[in-house]
Amino acid sequence: MTAPHNPHSERILILTPHGRDAVIAASLLGEAQIPTIICCDLHHLHRGLVEGAGMALLTEEAIRTADLSRLSQWIASQPPWSDMPFILLTGRGGGPEQNPAASRLSEILGNVIFLERPFHPTTLISVARTALRGRRRQYEARARLEALREGESRLKAALQAEQRGAQHQRLLIDELNHRVKNTLATVQSIATQTLRNADSNDEAYASLETRLLALSRAHDVLTRENWEGADLIEVVTQAIAPYRGRGGERFRIDGPEVRLCPRMSLAIAMAIQELATNAVKYGALSNAEGGVVIDWSVKNGVTPPRLAFRWCEEGGPIVRAPKRRGFGSRLIERNLARDLDGSVEITFAPSGVVCTVDAPLS
C-alpha cells in the first residue's frame, strides 16, 4: 500500500465536506504535529489512500448515502499486513448499536472507530494517535514479511545453486570417468601397437615413452583450460617442443586463432607427435637442412566451419613410400580421422611427407 519511507505513510486524510469539521480537525491535529490533508470528495480520498496514508477521518454524512464501491474495493484489496484504520465522526447516539446505517458503514470500512460529536479536542488527538500506532505496527509487520520473503528468496537461490553445483559435480565425475576410460584405452592401444611393431625392446621402450609423453603434454594443455578446449597454436607448440632444439628452429607455423574441443586437441597432438617422430627418423628432421611447415585455415560459409590443417616437410632426404604402413601412419589416418569426424591423408611425396586434415570445428 505504501512504499518504505513513504512520506505519506503517517498522514491523516480528512473527508468532512460539510461545515467547519475539516478545518477544525486539521487544526487540532496540526497542533499535535500530526500531518493531515483535507479531501474534497471520495475520489480525492481514494487517490490519497492509493498514494499512502496512516488513517482516514470521515464524517457519517459524507459517506452515508454515497457510492462506496471504489472505497470498498480498495479496502478489500489491501495486502495481508494492512488494515487501514478509519475514524468516523457521528452524531450523538450514532454508534452502530443504535444506528443501522452506521452498522453498514462499519462492515464496509472494517477497522473503524466511531467518535460521537461533540467531542473534546484531546479525545480526537488521543484516538488519532492510537490509530497511527496501530498503523505503525502494520508497517513493522510488512517489514518483517518482506524480510521473510527476501530470506526465502535467498534460501531458494542458495538451494538452487547447490543443486546446480551437485549436478555439475556429477557431470564432471561422469566426464572424468569417461576421459579416464578413453585415456586408458588410448594407452593400451599405443602400448600394444608399439610393442608389436618394435624390432627391439629398446626401440619399444623409446617409442612408448615418446608417445606417452606426447599424450601427457596434450593433457597438460587441456588441464590448464579445465578441459573446456585449447587453442590450436598451443597444442601445436607443445607437441613440437621436444624437437625445436634439433639444429635450431626447424618449424614454420602459420594460422589463425582456432579453438579446439578436447577430443580434437588430443587427436591433433598425437598426430603431430607421430609425424615428428617419423620426420626425426627418416624425414626432414633427420638432417641439418630440413624443416617442417605447419599451417591451417578455417573454411567459413559452411555449418559447422571446417578446419584445414597441413603438415609439410621440406629439405629432407628424398622420400620413398613405404611398402607397408606402420602404426604411426595408421594411428594418424584411422584414429585421427575417426576422432575428428573428418578426413586425413598422408602423402609420401619425394620432397617430403605431407599430411592434410579436413575436419569440422564442432
TrEMBL record:
UniProt name for this protein: histidine kinase
Catalyzed chemical reaction(s): ATP + protein L-histidine = ADP + protein N-phospho-L-histidine
Gene Ontology MF term list: ATP binding; protein histidine kinase activity
InterPro entries documented for this protein: CheY-like_superfamily, HATPase_C_sf, Sig_transdc_His_kinase_HWE
Lineage summary: Bacteria, Pseudomonadati, Pseudomonadota, Alphaproteobacteria, Hyphomicrobiales
Enzyme class of the recorded protein, top EC level: transferase
Annotated Pfam families: HWE_HK
EC number: 2.7.13.3
Signal transduction histidine kinase HWE region domain location: 175-257
Organism: Methylobacterium planeticum
SMART domains in alphabetical order: HWE_HK
Keywords: ATP-binding, Kinase, Nucleotide-binding, Phosphoprotein, Transferase
